Amino acid sequence: MIDGDHVDHLLAQWHAEMPDLDPSPMAVISRISRLGRIFERRLEEVFAEFGLNQSQFGVLAALRRAGPPFCLSPTELYNSLLISSGAMTNRLERLESAGYIRRIPDTEDGRSMLVALTPAGKRLIERVLRPHYENGQRLLSPLDEEEREQLAGLLRRLLLEFEDHVPPASARPLNGSSARSSRRRPAGSAPSRTPPTATRGT
Predict the structure, then answer these.
(1) Residues 77, 96: contact at Cβ < 8 Å?
(2) How many domains does the chain have?
(3) For residue 187, with 0-12 CB atoms within 10 Å meaning exposed, 13-18 middle and 19 or more buried, which class applies?
(4) Which residues partner with 72 through β-bridges?
(5) Distances (CA, A) of 40 to 95, 125, 172, 185
(6) Upstream peptide bond of 173 is cis (omega within 30 degrees of 0)
(7) Cβ–Cβ < 8 Å for 107, 179
(8) Is residue 79 part of a domain?
(9) What is the pLDDT of residue 173?
């Protein structure tokens, strides 16, 4: 029987080869990385049942959780999902071709477009959500409720050190009456940074 996980064995190898090296940060970072890849594969299995991938799910979920009228700007979307504008354009084109979103003029800025969830897109994301979160429950089943809360709290502390403290965008009014206010950041929040090019949706 093998004791320890893959990371334990990596750390033991480094200790044997370079005893003066302190690889202890990898006890956390490597496990987060490996679990992230494993979880992504398991999540993709559920999305595939509905003809989606995780990237497309991320866009539909961001629009749905923004609330009525389920409409955001592309900038708000790619900031929320931490992806580049080019990657966002590709996702939007695929979702628009499938009839799950539509792009409409921004009444406050004639040069810009907004992204709106279509009725078909809303129905789809609502069908996916329950099996998606049930899948998440299965993935975390080795931990009890108290352990999950402890882990969530520790990960939150780490994440707050590295990401902008800006809450997810709320839905943009389609008539433009108060759209400008939805673009304001909360007082004291950090300005948006250029999003990295490789991350998944939520």
Answers:
(1) no
(2) 2
(3) exposed
(4) 115
(5) 20, 18, 30, 30
(6) no
(7) yes
(8) yes
(9) 66
> How confident is the model at residue 166, as a pLDDT?
61
Measured N-to-C along each axis, helices 54-65 and 119-139 cross at an angle, to the nearest 10 degrees, of 110
Q: What is the pLDDT of residue 186?
A: 40
pLDDT attached to residue 18: 94
The CB-side HSE value for 16 (13 A sphere, CA atoms) comes to 6
pLDDT < 70 positions in the chain:
1-2, 109-110, 165-169, 171-202
Q: Do 67 and 110 sit in the same domain of this protein?
A: yes
Say whether both 97 and 141 belong to one domain.
yes
12 and 92 in a single domain? The answer is: no
Closest CA to 83 of 3, 202, 195, 188: 195
Domain that holds residue 30: 7-48
For CA atoms 132, 60, 101, 88, give the dihedral sign: negative
Which two structure tokens, joined as six digits, stand for 156? 């939150």
CA separation for the pair 64, 137 (Å, rounded): 21
Q: Which residues contact 43 (CB under 8 A, 6 or more apart)?
A: 54, 132, 135, 136
Do 78 and 27 sit in the same domain of this protein?
A: no
CATH of the domain at 82: 1.10.10.10
